[in-house]
Amino acid sequence: MKISVFGTGYVGLVTGACLSEVGHDVICVDHNSDIIAQLTQGKIPIWEPGLESIVQRNHQVGNLTFTTDARQAVEQTDVIFIAVGTPPGEDGSADLQQVLAVSKEIALAMNGPKLLINKSTVPVGTAPKVQETVTAHLEMSYSFSVVSNPEFLKEGSAVTDFMKPDRIIVGVDNDAARETLKQLYAPFNRNHDRMVFMDVPSAELTKYAANTLLATKISFMNELANLAEDLGADIESVRQGIGSDPRIGYHFIYPGCGYGGSCFPKDVKALIHIGQSQGHAMDILNSVEAVNKQQKDRLFNKLARHYGSESNLKGLKFAVWGLTFKPNTDDLREAPSLNLIQDLLRVGARVQVFDPVAMDEAKQLFNGINGIDFCQDKYAALNDADALILVTEWRSFQAPDFVEMEERLTKKTLFDGRNQYDPHWMKEQGWHYEGIGRGVIGK
User: Fold this and answer.
1) What 3-state DSSP class applies to 400?
2) Tens-place pLDDT, residues 11-64
3) Which of 80, 360, 401, 403 is buried deepest, with most CB atoms within 10 A?
4) Which DSSP helix (H) or strand (E) runs through 5?
């Protein structure tokens, strides 16, 4: 098929690249000429495992091209994906300006029947707005359909998620569009049919339902972890106990220092707003958001308690391992590390940070701010630091050299925001260790 994808962020670029990988002819469209120039040279603007090689390979053979010319892309393709951002407004609602702007562009360039596939995360009722926008700006009368095909791509495993999906959700209201989607996704359905067809409003709501349910599991476990500390229980034992129940399972029940990224915070806010607009208070999601906000302060509060007060943190030096909101991405949006670093700098502490892939992004974010040092490796970040704080569970942090750590730190003190280490072993080695929901272990 001949396909165009509007938007070259995580969703748009992964979608375009993976569709070209199975043989479709794909044109990726973006108004940012710098991004298009990079992509044309085989350089991708995001860090996503496996994506760069797919982009380079398919661009080289001609399956995947990049342009800023929206009209040319629309004229040359029959199937058009909308994969642009829907950032939250001040009230938490999803901002549809980019989606509707692209819809207008598509309408002005249409030269025949088209299928518009909305890949962006949008509230229920967006499809009719796209339909109205296109209809209002058509220069000639052409038939078109608007379907909802929400993405379920996890940053850090987006390519695998697309190439080997567990489900493909499609909201559609006519048989012709349904058949086109079946053909489009046929290469991903060889073993068994992963496509789930439904009405358009249900598909739009399914995306929000999935992300907010996962966020709810995280906040529930974090609240339970905080209670476990007060009760003298070990949340890791509790996690294994409840995870062994197949009705619960082990996914997304790992306690930590809060969720972040571009999806969960935004989608929780958006669904709260959607519910309130329909007269539903969305009490559970309001609590999910409140718990997560508090959890991002958990590590800082542990430090203040350990050293006696916030004021006692002034002049101390802390090593921070991990800056991104999760491993295998360079995304710093809503990352718990940002809350921690900002609080430490606010009280006059010094911070030495290291992240395997996000150092350039962090330098830009903290440009001109005093008190933060960017280190070349994880051990350099420990030099003369009073304590280590692990924030992101990168694999390279899971089995460090504790002897070297001891030699570089001024004291054997570790605050583990992701429960990566065994507290009993840490105690045996003479460390002061604090995890999430595991109490205070050691000296």
Assistant:
1) coil
2) 999 999 999 999 999 999 999 999 999 999 999 999 999 999 999 999 999 999
3) 80
4) strand 2-6
Does residue 94 sit in helix, strand or coil? strand
Q: Rounded to the nearest 10 degrees, what angle do helices 264-277 and 283-295 cross at?
A: 150
More confident residue, 275 or 139: 275
pLDDT at 439 over 80: no
Q: What is the pLDDT of residues 352-404, one digit of tens each?
A: 999 999 999 999 999 999 999 999 999 999 999 999 999 999 999 999 999 99
Inform me whether the pLDDT recorded for 443 exceeds 60.
Answer: no
Examine the residue annotation and report whether 263 is marked as an active-site residue of this protein.
Answer: yes
Which one of 18, 257, 263, 375 is the catalytic residue? 263
Cα–Cα dist 133/111, whole Å: 16
Token pair for residue 427? 């105690």
Q: What is the overall mean pLDDT for the chain?
A: 96
pTM over 0.85: yes
203 close to 177: Cβ distance less than 8 angstroms: no
Q: CA-CA distance, 397 to 328, in Å (whole number)?
A: 13
Contact 170, 195 (CB under 8 A): yes
Distances in whole angstroms, Cα of residue 90 to Cα of each of 32, 100, 196, 331: 25, 19, 34, 22
